[in-house]
Design a protein that fits this description.
The chain is α+β, with helices and mostly antiparallel strands and about 375 residues long. The chain has 3 domains: about 120 residues, Potassium Channel Kv1.1, Chain A (2-Layer Sandwich), CATH 3.30.710; about 70 residues, no CATH class; about 100 residues. It is about 40% helix and about 15% strand. The chain has 15 helices and 10 strands. A 7-stranded antiparallel β-sheet has the order 6-10-4-5-9-7-8, with no helix packed on it. Strands 2-1-3 form a 3-stranded mixed β-sheet. Helix 5 packs antiparallel against helix 6 and helix 7 packs antiparallel against helix 8. It is elongated. This is BTB domain-containing protein. Pfam families: BACK (PF07707), BTB (PF00651).
Length: about 375
Amino acid sequence: MIPQQIIYNFQMERFEIFKAQNPENAKFDVAFDIGGKILYANKFILYPISSTFEAMLSDRWTKTDDPIKIEGYLYDDFKQFLTFLYSGQCELSNDNIFAMVDIAEFFGVVAFKDFCEEFLVQTECTLDNVFLMVEFAKKYSLKKLEETITKFITDNFAMCFKSVQFQALPKSTVKSLIEENQETPMQEEMFEGVFQWAEKQAKESIEVGNGLDLNGAIKNAISEFLPLIKFKSMNSVFLIQYVVKKSFLFYADELSDILWASNKLFAKVTDKNGKIMKGEIQCEDTKWVSTYPDFCCWDTVLPRVPEPEYNVTLTKNDKVEWYLLIAFNVGKYQDIAIEIVNRVFDDDYLIAELFAEDGFEFSKDCKIEIY
């Protein structure tokens, strides 16, 4: 038997004694009082791995044999924590996980904190829990969880930013989410969601009497975020139909600059379930592309055009999963099409990088829009 296995077996014997919680049959030398219930343990198991326990179990704190009171935690949660210290595992659930992370933080047990974070990373993200976990991950510096949450929000950007859950977030969290997603191609959806959030905050502030009218209260709530949103990357239709109607948010020169810069074209692909992927048209000659504002790529027959004399401005990037392109064949360009990156070839003329929401399904039921 290898030494590691022997040590493990010894530790499991100690764990079985701990589980029995029989002070008459075991040499426990510390007791904890959690809400009136007593939990017995061994100091030599606890203090080497936690400076908090080391201080708590020192003579400065415990000069008698009285149980040490544990405040702020449930008996079952604290018992699961000690179970982990004895055995390297314990029972985590959606009901106790937040308390367990707090215990790990308070007692400074990094291994237990990592164990809890792995549970959270494996938990399915939904609209009902994702923003709660955003704030929780930042509070406890759970980097892996932050990465998981960021991916979910990126993949479900429009759904997240335009949800009622987003509207209930505190201002600091909203600002953080905007800063983390400044490079998103979905600037329109971000502004819509942030404006709806600001409108809700404004109505609530008016109810308590802040002395502002609705427009003034909205501007007061959203003004800090406006410099973080890339209005010049938005398409002209959205700017005219949505942003201009919110002109009270901007100085005249600011709005003028935004509108002058709105000469870009965008592509949006919508699947049968309403999920979208989109990107900016990046070819030099956008005039002929703009003449096909609404079509399905497998049904459209575009006019054959000769190979352009200018150089291609967009090159393949393996980090981009989808492309809008014109397939080239026998000296002529074919229809506009969508291809996954591993099926993009050197003679394809790329016109847009496309970024998809999570759950986007590419099929014959998709619709392409150029706007």
